[in-house]
Amino acid sequence: MKPLRPALPCLQARPDGSLLLSLHVQPGAARTELAGLHGDALKLRLAAPPIDGRANKAVIDFIAELLHLPKSAVIIKSGLANRAKKLLLTGIAEHEARSLLEQNRGSLTS
User: Fold this and answer.
1) Model pTM?
2) What domain of life is recorded for the organism (predicted)?
């Protein structure tokens, strides 16, 4: 029997139907990609530098495209000036977000 995969600790459903996604962002990487888990956060390697808000814009652009959401549905709730960020996601079901994140992961359960 195949063991059950643990739920992604980086994604939490909220009572209002929105989702909270915890990220650990590594700006200035060679390319933008998901890189597994960093504690309870999803690690995002980001090609954009952390200058003049470019990294924050790139985080929103990448996550919105990955989850097939409009950019307005992805809001940085906390961590504007930090690597640890919490994103508020609206307009997507938890199971759909988990599925899309797992499809595009490096190794989210490692």
Assistant:
1) 0.88
2) Bacteria
Question: What CA–CA distance (Å, rounded) separates 64 from 39?
Answer: 23
Residues 6+ apart with CB under 8 A from 34: 42, 43, 44, 45, 66, 101, 104, 105, 106, 108
pLDDT tens digit string along 61-96? Answer: 999 999 999 999 999 999 999 999 999 999 999 999
Full set of structural domains in the chain with CATH: 20-103 (3.30.1200.10)
d(CA 38, CA 59): 16
Q: What are phi and psi of 41, to 5 degrees?
A: -110, 155
